[in-house]
Amino acid sequence: MSSSNSTSAPILSVSQLNRKARTLLESHFDWVWVEGEISNFACPSSGHWYFSLKDAGAQVRCAMFRNRNTRLRFRPDNGEQVRLRARVSLYEGRGEFQLVVEFMEPAGAGALQARFEALRERLRSEGLLDAERKRPLPQTIRHIAVVTSPTGAAIHDILTVLRRRCPLITVSLLPVAVQGREAIEEIASAIERANRWQRDGLCHFDVLLIGRGGGSLEDLWAFNEERVARAVAASDLPVVSAVGHETDISIADLVADQRAATPSAAAELLSPDQSLWLERLQRQSEELRRQMQRQLQRLGRELQHLRARLKHPGTGIRERSQRLDDIEQRLHRAQRQRLARYQARLDSLAAGLRQKNPGPRLRERRAMLTVTEQRLRQAAQRRVQERSTRLRELSQLLNTLSPLATLQRGYAIVSRADGGIVRDAATVSRGDRLQAQLANGVLEVEVTGRKDASDGS
């Protein structure tokens, strides 16, 4: 009997069994929130996270893949209490029951919400949420800078609405990531870049639209970061924020000049309905046509009235032609008389100029200058001759009194080595070395003896 039952039952491989168990688990459970303590945390080179989540009575294996854990703003460690949102599954390779984690936050009621409230209060205390600082949107919008993901639903919805309502509006996309840690800096930098282009004259934007489609609180969290909020507050361009669905409120929504419930609603807010514009244009066109007809009728009546008053212009033209000839003749006479007066005045001035011509006086002064120059040259020559004669006389006198002349007669000047002149034989001793200055040359002498003046006598 037992053999018969085992033969009729379907035989599954281990892989098939694990696959069925996984399908059963994933189809039975929706997303679940689980809280517990992390243990056995591991992060291999792939970037995926593997760990166990435990409480006092049990534990469960967990996996959080790289495309999810890079969006977190913290890295968990063993012993931390966390709350995570996960899908119940089974790892077929080892037949292990596990949780595939989509989101994780530190444990504690509303940790993200608490951060949200804290930032909102801080910005409110600085006045960044005040209605008085919010600027109105431009009346006419021709160019919108959109900061969002290039592949998300938000840009598709925005372009669809604008194409339907007002296709003339230009849209410039500043592509950014809209979730994850890298999205924070990308969004803030894109806002600052749009304002810099505006200031530098590279682009002219009328308004800046930032946002993304719906998602969970953690998916939308990049728009709740202080870096993004301050970039929005510092923007010179008016900012419209459209983050998530109608019920989602972000910090960016609170700081922006205008909040829209969705990206589609933002596009409607910023664009006029072209059908309304066409209807308005048609009404204005009809009104313009009626005014033109009234104006033409009024001008027609005035033309008829003027035509009735108009006389033939020939008479007036002949009279004015004759008057013109008379004026021309008077003008010629006046010109001739004025030219005659000017010629007489010119002749009188020429005669006076000839009388005051400085030529003769210059020639007289030049002759006097020549005579004076000759006198000066003669006086200078006489003075030089007189000085030369006086110099020769003084030179002869100087030669007469010069000791060099005395030396020429055979005398000598005797001096010591220090340059002192010897005038008395009593002042030298035997062995002293002296110098005798002759008319030509110097003698080095040594005293071998002396005779006083009394000896000679």
User: Which secondary-structure class do the elements indicate?
Assistant: alpha/beta
| Low-pLDDT stretches | none
Counting structural domains, the number is 4
Rounded mean pLDDT score? 85
What characteristic shape results from the CA principal axes? flat
Q: What's the CATH architecture name of the largest domain?
A: 3-Layer(aba) Sandwich
CATH fold label of the largest domain: Rossmann fold
Distance from first to last alpha carbon? 187 Å
Number of helices: 14
Instruction: Look at the structure and give the CATH class of the largest domain.
Output: Alpha Beta
Proportion of residues in helical segments? 40-55%
The main sheet comes to: 5 strands, mixed, barrel
Helix and strand sequence: HHEEEHEEHEHEHEHEHEHHHHHEEEH
C-alpha Rg, in Å? 60 Å
Strand order of the largest sheet: 1-2-3-5-4
Estimate the strand proportion. Answer: 15-25%
Number of E-type strands: 13
Provide a descriptive summary of the structure in words:
By secondary structure, the protein is of the alpha/beta class. The chain has four domains: 107 residues, Beta Barrel (OB fold (Dihydrolipoamide Acetyltransferase, E2P)); 158 residues, Rossmann fold (3-Layer(aba) Sandwich); 30 residues; 42 residues, no CATH class. 50% of the residues lie in helices and 18% in strands. It is built from 14 helices and 13 strands. The strands form three sheets. It has a five-stranded mixed β-barrel with strand order 1-2-3-5-4. It has a five-stranded parallel sheet with strand order 7-6-8-9-10, with helices on both faces. It has a three-stranded antiparallel sheet with strand order 11-12-13, with no helix packed on it. A hairpin with a 6-residue loop joins strand 1 and strand 2.
